[in-house]
Design brief:
It holds the Pfam family Glycos_transf_2. Keywords: Glycosyltransferase, Transferase. One of its GO terms (molecular function) is glycosyltransferase activity. By secondary structure, the chain is an alpha+beta fold. The protein has one domain. It contains two helices and two strands. The chain has helices at residues 19-30, 50-56, and strands spanning 9-15, 37-43. A two-stranded parallel ribbon has the order 1-2. 13% of the residues are buried.
């Protein structure tokens, strides 16, 4: 890796019944200017629409 190469960053978002806040969180992370990143949503068995929202963002 050269000094000019930007590192690849993983953003891990833990979620449990986060349907009400997940969209805002994902939008905020997605709108960052840094482009070498991956977003991981770790769902701990939510019973609301958390999984579906993450799926809509293509994060499953």
């Amino acid at each position: 890796m050269t000094a000019r190469e930007a590192p690849f960053i993983s953003i891990v978002i833990p979620a449990y019944n986060a349907e009400k806040t997940l969209v805002e969180t994902l939008s905020s992370v997605s709108n960052q200017s840094y482009d070498k990143l991956e977003i991981l949503v770790v769902d701990d068995g939510s019973r609301d629409g958390t999984f579906e929202l993450a799926s809509d963002y293509g994060l499953t």
